[in-house]
Amino acid sequence: MQYFIGSYEHNVDPKNRLFVPSKFRDGLTGSFNISVFRSETYPCIQCFTEEKFQPYVEQMIESETDVNLKRRIAIWYLGFAADVTVDSQGRINIPQKLLEKAKIEKEALIIGMGSHVEIWNPALFEAYNETVDAWTKKNEIASEQASDAALERKAQGGFLGI
Prior knowledge:
This protein is of the alpha+beta class.
């Protein structure tokens, strides 16, 4: 079982083929599944081995309690999924619809995510990271303020743990 790490940039060619980094090819041998993880802040193509894809999708669907969201998750993960194989040149052919959903035109960023691989539009990945950085900083500031307030209450002898 391969653990996918690292990031690589490659171009999608005019026939929608993308070079798979050699470090990832061993773990993505034979047929594997690609699907779009679609949200406004997280549009990318996810690549799973066949053994990982089904349990992952089932867990995503079963963890949702809202019937409409269950259906939407099933459509995104199953309705837009494709089985692909690495060709003799080390490339995969990505369906046009998946490229459109992930907003990938020419440049692609291929990222190891441990159990799977993600393919991003590099600009969208950068924007996503900036959003995460801003969220992290906001939470760090809030945590520091709460800690400072707790220390002040304790110093005044009125610390009740609230």
